[in-house]
Amino acid sequence: MTQDISEQAKAVIRRNTEEVQGGGDWALFDTLFSDDFYDHTPQPGMARDKANVLGLYQRLRVAFPDFRPEIHWQRADGDVVTTFKTYHGTHLGDFLGVPATGKKVSFETVDAMRVVDSKITDHWGVANLYSVLQQLGALAPMAK
User: With a threshold of 0.90, does the pTM exceed it?
Assistant: First the structure.
């Protein structure tokens, strides 16, 4: 039974990653996310709710209109799915206060999401935004 729950949860997270984040399907976002969704690791100064996550996803697609996720692997422990992925995109709009540069960027992220009754209820995650700022020229590369 746990295997079935895990596989169903992985499918929900894959749809969010590929169709919502990668495809901008905002109607599907509303279907996949629980109304009482809680983000345990929100961006600094941001709310922890469903509306904030939608806003973040939409801002990413404005900053990177060709935003594309590449899932490397997913692991599930019951209803919690951990995903390691790389995001790719061309910087054509403001991102983290950096105006459009036209540069192609990629950055890794690891997140864990809980899925209950086919709805995403919780999120924990870490994204390598330092790397993005370096790629955009907003931060100097670290000395070796």
Answer: yes
- The vertex-72 CA angle with 69 and 75, nearest 5°, equals 115
CA distance 129 to 20: 20
Backbone angles phi, psi at 117, to 5 degrees: 55, 45
Segment 105-126 shows an average pLDDT of 97
**Could you tell me the fold of the domain covering 2-135?**
Nuclear Transport Factor 2; Chain: A, (3.10.450)
Q: Quickly count: other Cβ atoms within 10 Å of residue 49's Cβ.
A: 16
Are the C-beta atoms of residues 112 and 121 closer than 8 Å to each other? Answer: no
Residues with Cβ < 8 Å from 108, sequence gap 6 or more?
84, 85, 86, 87, 127, 128, 131
Classify each residue of 91-113 as buried b or exposed e, where b means 16 or more C-beta atoms within 10 Å of its C-beta. Answer: beeebeebeeeeeebebebebbb
* Of the candidates 141, 84, 137, the residue with the CA atom closest to the CA atom of residue 107: 84
CA pair distance 126, 51, nearest whole angstrom? 19
**3 falls in which pLDDT band (50, 70, 90)?**
low
Amino acid (one-letter) located at 108: E
